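This part of the workshop introduces the protein records we will be handling. A record pairs a protein's sequence with a compact description of its fold. As an example, a complete record with its sequence and its structure tokens follows.

_____
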Amino acid sequence: MIKEIKLDKYNLIAKACVMHEESEDTENHIERIVAVNIKGSISLQAMTGDFGIVVYNENMLGFFIDWKDYESLRKELNIHEEDIDFLDNITSDLIDSVINNIANH
């Protein structure tokens, strides 16, 4: 079981969660949980929402970075809000970090 994952490239911690998909009329949301085991995952998906950035498997278990942590790092690195590449880089690092972490456990 893994409680959190430190991203490989950026100084951020992704926390364990359960993803909840809602109907078309409502937002997806996450529920923070203590730990997950996603080692035998068949697939991973990534998305952003009001909660932040999340990577989760077919069982809806995964890891997320909330917007507060993302914004703190963006300000610390003096990255402008308009820099969409930074969001893409964080998302890619989250995906890679989750894959690397579950491959090594």
User: Anything to note?
Assistant: The CA atoms of residues 12 and 69 lie 7 Å apart. The mean pLDDT is 92. The first strand starts at residue 4 and ends at 6. The chain has two helices and six strands.
